[in-house]
Design brief:
This protein has about 220 residues and is α+β, with helices and mostly antiparallel strands. It has 5 helices and 12 strands. About 40% of the residues are buried.
């Protein structure tokens, strides 16, 4: 019950998610992107297992990490640990997939994007759509999320895609949450905030919604004239 999108663009990485959640049998809305130590995470899978993951990850990262690759190794181990714990109890539903993005050296370097599979294997990816709505999103993302785009344009297009899919998949919904991480060649000087993670503004999220609605109404005329 989710849609998460990651995209590596010309000057950074974008990570986007819808906000519809399922706890028990009741849907509600909440954050799906979490920032921990300058790294952002978005998840597909059971909300309860995600909550367990976040508790374990915060505990592990409190010791400090010097690179995004080190964080990826920690994430792989926690994801695999939770998968083994719950696979016999929950069967095929006991999975947690994680998209993660950050700077190579946490506070400097190029922004990188990883997807950690439910079995605990992580790989660098240029872009990925995951979750229940991924197949719908992929049909658009393949043509809209291009590697030469800027972070700002990629973030706007990711929000547009999530708004578009909301009308196609009832498990996807809520104003998209879109994180942006820009490449940072050098370490910030003392007294300068790292500020690696930014978020698409509510105004731009709303602008993406209005554009998606206009394009949906115009779609029949585009395809059949």
């Amino acid at each position: 019950m989710t849609l998460i999108i990651g995209h590596k663009c010309s000057d950074g990485v974008v990570l986007a998610a819808d906000r519809k959640l399922l706890r028990g049998e009741e849907p509600h809305y909440g954050d799906k992107i979490f920032e921990i130590g300058g790294v952002v995470f978005a998840f597909e899978g059971l909300t309860g297992i995600r909550d367990d993951f976040l508790l374990l990850l915060r505990s592990e990262l409190a010791r400090g990490s010097s690179s995004l690759y080190e964080v990826k190794l920690v994430v792989e181990d926690i994801v695999e640990q939770l998968w083994r714990r719950y696979e016999q109890r929950l069967g095929g539903g006991a999975y947690l997939g994680a998209l993660m993005a950050g700077l190579e050296n946490i506070h400097s370097g190029n922004a990188e994007l990883y997807y950690v599979h439910p079995e605990g294997y992580g790989e660098a990816v240029p872009y990925r759509c995951s979750g229940h709505g991924a197949n719908y999103a992929h049909a658009l993302a393949k043509f809209l999320l291009l590697p030469e785009l800027s972070v700002e344009e990629s973030a706007f297009r990711a929000a547009f895609i999530i708004w578009w899919v909301e009308d196609l998949d009832t498990t996807v919904g809520g104003p998209p949450q879109v994180a942006m991480i820009r490449n940072r060649p050098s370490v910030p000087s003392s007294g300068q905030a790292a500020g690696a993670v930014e978020y698409l503004s509510p105004g731009d999220v709303e602008r993406a919604r209005r554009l998606a609605n206009r394009k949906k109404r115009a779609f029949p005329g585009l395809m059949f004239r």
